[in-house]
Amino acid sequence: MRNAEYQTRKPEDCMSGAAIIVKALQDQGVEVIFGYPGGAVLPLYDELFKTNNLRHILVRHEQAAVHAAEGYARSTGKPGVVLVTSGPGATNAVTGLTDALMDSIPIVCLTGQVPTHLIGTDAFQEADTTGITRACTKHNYLVKKSEDLADVMHEAFYVAGNGRPGPVVIDLPKDILFEEGPYFTLENKRPCAYKPQIMEDQQQIEKAVKLLADAEQPIIYGGGGLINSGTRASQLLREFADLTGYPVTLTLMGLGAFPASNKHFLGMLGMHGTYEANLAMHQCDVMFNIGARFDDRVTGRIKDFSPNSTKIHVDIDPSSINKNVKVDLPIIGDAALILEQMIRVWKEKGYKRNDGMLSEWWQKIEVWRDKKCLDFKQDSKIIKPQYAIRRLFEKTQKTDAYITTEVGQHQMWAAQYYGFEQPNRWMTSGGLGTMGYGLPAAMGVQIAHPDALVIDIAGEASILMNIQELSTISQYNLPVKAFIVNNQWMGMVRQWQELNHGSRYSQSYTESLPDFVKLADSFGGTGMVAETVDQLDSVIDAMLKTEGFFLADIRVAKEENCFPMIPSGAAHNEMILGLGDSLESPTTTKAGMALV
Amino acid sequence: MSEILEERHTIALLVDNEPGVLARVIGLFSGRGYNIESLTVSEVDTIKGYSRITIVTSGTEMVIQQIKALLNRLVPVHEVHDLSIEGPHLERELALIKVVNTGEQRIEAMRIADMFRARAIDSTLTSFVFEVTGSPRKVNAFIELMGGLGDIEVCRGGVVAIARGSEIELDTPN
């Protein structure tokens, strides 16, 4: 290879490929692997059998292994590690990998492969894993020589965790696992070609601070980058908001980066964001985007997105800049590092919080807030889904709970009605919108935080997509709680059919749902049903008191819609607050219909 | 609106010469619906194992910016240079053109080939294969003229490009 130094360095030891992998994992500080064995990875499982320092969690489906690793990663800030076999093992992992790519979650996924001499022969359980995963990973490797193995292992962790985090696949032919090769320690590894670009341009930062200091209607729009940057970013954001007195809104992925109870917080923005957050975005004069990517769920119709604002965009990934929305002042860098410098500049330049000037802006915001866009009426015996989640929040807010979700209406209600005070407490599938994410993710969170309260706020349709993981949960005695908001519909599909397709409910009703109580029972857990409002509290209480895993089957109003909502293809100022709401254009346009 | 103007850009990359690197580059274009007008790739440093890729693409300013950022994000890509905006640069292309004709048209083909400094590298009594190098525009012009002089078959090598001047832009690092 190219590097002279690299050729002459001395390996620490020589050992089998499988042993190199286990040693590298240990050197990287890995404690837990989520996996499922198979023919191609047997040598590696044999090596795991001999070691005591790596905990292997046996899942029931490879997709769940990746989601569990995502939950682990997102709740700890450490990379999640997955081990699956060749062929179907790898292809089953693809959804999880894509999910991790979209939400920037650091994952290292080891996949088995047929031995090198059989690659390309359509061998048993062969799949072109690097080919298939090229588009759904940040990077992938096929290890063809055992002398590359140790370096690839170390490099994979570096790539997964640095710059914008993401999933990395290492494809491991079976013969490489047997073959002896050199082990190089982390300190002695080959220099890595991957160098994330950082442009923490001091002048840009000073300009940004000046823009913000001069703003009359500013808004801080934070995203998942704040979470990925570590807990310090969230502390600094709080400090910056205090320093400036500016309102803060967060994306779905950013929830927890700023305390929901803080008076500067306007709630989540976007398609199901709050009225005040979206209108503040629409009317602001300076927008400070930190760690968010102008996702289409956030911007609505691009043409009319925040038309009068000067936009500052801080992102660690240069390709996020000017991708969807043209910005005026890009800064490439880590959220915490940039915030730190901005706070320093703010103080050095003697900028002062100008509450007088801001009061007009806050008054406007208060008028929007007074719309109370999240209000709902719990006026019958039937449980409103919003009420169920609100009660869950009220009963768990003092316990530092970790919340995961599946995908759909319940996910949006959880985002709206569960208040997060800290980062890393909220695990949800944002970019890809993967139904079946929540239960395995909760498993991963619970593994990382054995004593914590971990709740999967689920829909009855989503949870069935990875329901087999109850078996894993049972095996490892994980006290995961699943709070199933059960309306018997694929609620969000039903809602869109109601709004956009003349209430023709094509295939969105689930006929034969299981008895969740018996289901929990069959896996050795506990289940309870709440059918009316007066049963809700006692089911939640029972759930919180139960030591093992628990399925709470909360039967909610079946045809409740998730509001407020920006219809697809509409702008921030065209929100619907509810059906029968008389805002300008409550219906979806033809162009909007074609959007997802 | 200047934003919707599509511009043609020539981008030079220095990449690790490893399996899959071309697929990564192409996958990035196909996966996001960007154009590739021309693509050439060849190893430029056999000892250190580097290849150079030249891509000609077109898109709006935002798209071109995206393409460069995405290319930069690929692990085996070491350098990304947008030759179209980094200063004057040279573009050359090699093409082989087979023209099938007889009589007066044959003589005309030879005459035009001479003007374009194209060489006849194969000949039968009814055909020539011309080798022509030059800027893509020159090659286009030559092909168009030959098309008027008989049936033609065209094979183009794609654009290779380098910046003018004494600066070494895409150095192969150790």
Please provide a written account of the structure.
Chain A is of the alpha/beta class and 596 residues long. Chain A is built from 24 helices and 20 strands. In chain A, helix 2 crosses helix 3 (42-50). Chain A is globular. Chain B is built from 4 helices and 8 strands, in the order βαββαββαββαβ. Chain B has helices at residues 21-32, 61-73, 104-115, 136-147; strands at 7-16, 38-45, 50-59, 77-82, 89-100, 119-124, 127-134, 151-163. In chain B, the strands form 2 sheets. A 4-stranded antiparallel β-sheet of chain B has the order 2-3-1-4, covered by helices on one side. A 4-stranded antiparallel β-sheet of chain B has the order 6-7-5-8. In chain B, a hairpin with a 2-residue loop joins strand 6 and strand 7. The longest helix of chain B is centred in the middle third of the chain and has 13 residues, at 61-73. The N and C termini of chain B lie far apart (45 Å). The model of chain B has no long low-confidence stretch (mean pLDDT 94). At the A-B interface, loops of A face helix 1 and helix 2 of B.
Task: Label this structure with key terms.
heterodimer; A: about 600 residues; alpha/beta; six-stranded parallel β-sheet; 24 helices; about 40% helix; B: about 170 residues; alpha+beta; Alpha-Beta Plaits; four-stranded antiparallel β-sheet; 4 helices; 8 strands; about 30% helix
Question: SSE layout and pairings?
Answer:
The complex is a heterodimer of chains A (596) and B (174).
Chain A: H1 4-8, E1 13-16, H2 17-27, E2 32-35, H3 42-50, E3 55-58, H4 62-76, E4 80-84, H5 88-102, E5 107-113, H6 129-133, E6 139-142, H7 146-161, E7 167-173, H8 174-178, E8 180-183, H9 202-214, E9 218-222, H10 224-228, H11 231-244, E10 248-250, E11 265-268, H12 275-283, E12 286-290, H13 296-299, E13 310-315, E14 329-332, H14 335-348, H15 355-369, H16 385-396, E15 402-405, H17 409-417, E16 426-427, H18 438-448, E17 454-459, H19 460-463, H20 470-475, E18 481-486, H21 491-500, H22 516-522, E19 526-530, H23 533-545, E20 550-555, H24 590-594
Parallel strand pairs in A: 2-3, 2-4, 4-5, 5-7, 6-7, 9-10, 9-12, 10-11, 12-13, 13-14, 15-16, 15-17, 17-18, 18-20, 19-20
Antiparallel strand pairs in A: 1-8
Chain B: E1 7-16, H1 21-32, E2 38-45, E3 50-59, H2 61-73, E4 77-82, E5 89-100, H3 104-115, E6 119-124, E7 127-134, H4 136-147, E8 151-163
Antiparallel strand pairs in B: 1-3, 1-4, 2-3, 5-7, 5-8, 6-7
